[in-house]
Amino acid sequence: QVQLVESGGGLVQAGDSLRLSCAASGRTFSWFTMGWYRQAPGKEREFVATISVNGGSTHYADSVKGRFTISRDNEENTVYLQMNSLKPEDTAIYYCNTHPPRPAGWGQGTQVTVSS
């Protein structure tokens, strides 16, 4: 069973950057495709990015393509999301989970707020 803890969120201005981290416990972390997801106020949770087991394949939502980069370090059991050129519409709680996501895999998330 993989337990996930997100961190790195904060309040930033439009155009700024943030790097989110997702620390995983458990020896099976490297077995899973991982993803970042987000939920904005009043909206459904949505997919942001995924990364394959060995990091060789990544996919992004159209809304973040070219601005966000997902990466992972299997030695450190951590997944990252580098977010550049942030926009107010990126404001949301950001979560990591396996991909496809497991219902039991949702953590507390980390809040990202982008002011205009």
Helices, strands, pairings?
Layout: E1 3-7, E2 10-13, E3 18-25, E4 34-39, E5 46-51, E6 58-60, E7 68-73, E8 78-83, E9 92-98, E10 110-115
Parallel strand pairs: 2-10
Antiparallel strand pairs: 1-3, 3-8, 4-5, 4-9, 5-6, 7-8, 9-10
Protein model, in words:
- Helix content is 0%, strand content 49%.
- The strands form 2 sheets. Strands 2-10-9-4-5-6 form a 6-stranded mixed β-sheet, with no helix packed on it.
- The model has no long low-confidence stretch (mean pLDDT 95).
Summarize the entry for a quick read.
With 116 residues, the chain is mainly β.
Any key phrases for this structure?
116 residues, mainly beta, 0% helix
Q: What radius of gyration results from the CA coordinates?
A: 13 Å
Order of helices and strands: EEEEEEEEEE
Number of strands: 10
Q: What overall geometry do the principal axes of the alpha carbons give?
A: globular
Q: What is the first-to-last residue Cα distance? A: 40 Å
Mean pLDDT: 95
Summed up, the helix count is 0
